[in-house]
Automatic annotation (TrEMBL):
The keyword Membrane applies. The chain crosses the membrane at residues 20-43. GO terms for biological process: defense response to other organism. It is found in: Membrane. This is PREDICTED: NDR1/HIN1. It is a single-pass membrane protein. It comes from Prunus dulcis (Almond). Residues 77-176 form the Late embryogenesis abundant protein LEA-2 subgroup domain. The keyword Membrane applies. GO terms for cellular component: plasma membrane; plasmodesma. Keywords: Membrane, Transmembrane, Transmembrane helix.
Length: 211
């Protein structure tokens, strides 16, 4: 009987040790996670800056009858810089596309996941294409007016998810929205478009990050 009691006591003690060890390990992990999170909040990461470095249009055609549609082949160069000296940026797959008056006129190009280190620049040069992309009659009228003035304002948009990285800690996903306006200047409008047209970025890209 005493041997059975002793074995039960040993088993209880071992079970208690395992529980305390598990609780201690879990608490330590939570503490380290909270510590890194507090450091992250104290550092207060600044959002990355984006610039539209280049826009080259190889083809731009617009149908003159219903249904109105745009065909465009272009390539853009976007650069990003991480202003943080202690926080890295992990870009999840990002989508890049062009719009005219808030209407998408190219297919979205998928950029691969990219890590951006402290104070580090990143450059992407995706091709953007759209074949017979429909536009509204209102946009068609506006486009006709823009063509007569010789300048068409487009917007290069980039969106997707980003994560912040401090040491081994990685934040949850944040939503990234980038908006880069650019003027496309046409020469001979009578040909319905021109080849190898260089666009001119209007201003710095607008960057927004939301939870």
């Amino acid at each position: 009987m005493s041997e059975k009691i002793a074995s039960v006591n040993v088993g209880c003690i071992s079970s208690r040790k395992l529980k305390w060890f598990a609780w201690g390990t879990g608490g330590l992990i939570v503490f380290i996670g909270l510590l890194v999170f507090v450091v992250f909040l104290v550092l207060h990461p600044s959002k990355p800056s984006f610039n539209l470095e280049d826009v080259t249009v190889y083809q731009f055609n617009v149908s003159k009858a219903l249904p109105y549609a745009i065909t465009i082949i272009m390539q853009v160069t976007l650069s990003s810089r991480n202003p943080n000296s202690r926080i890295g940026v992990e870009y999840q797959p990002l989508h890049v596309y062009a719009t005219y008056r808030d209407q998408q006129i190219t297919m979205a190009y998928l950029l691969p996941p990219t890590y951006q280190g402290h104070k580090e620049p990143v450059v992407w040069s995706p091709p953007l294409t759209g074949y017979d992309m429909p536009i509204s009659p209102y946009s068609q009228q506006s486009l006709d007016q823009d063509w007569h003035t010789g300048v068409v304002l487009m917007n290069i948009k980039l969106q997707g998810d980003v994560k912040w990285k401090v040491g081994t800690w990685i934040s949850p996903n944040y939503h990234l929205y980038v908006h880069c306006p650019a003027n496309i200047r046409f020469g001979d409008l009578n040909n319905g478009g021109s080849n190898l047209i260089k666009g001119q970025p209007v201003d710095h890209c607008d960057v927004e990050i939301a939870s």
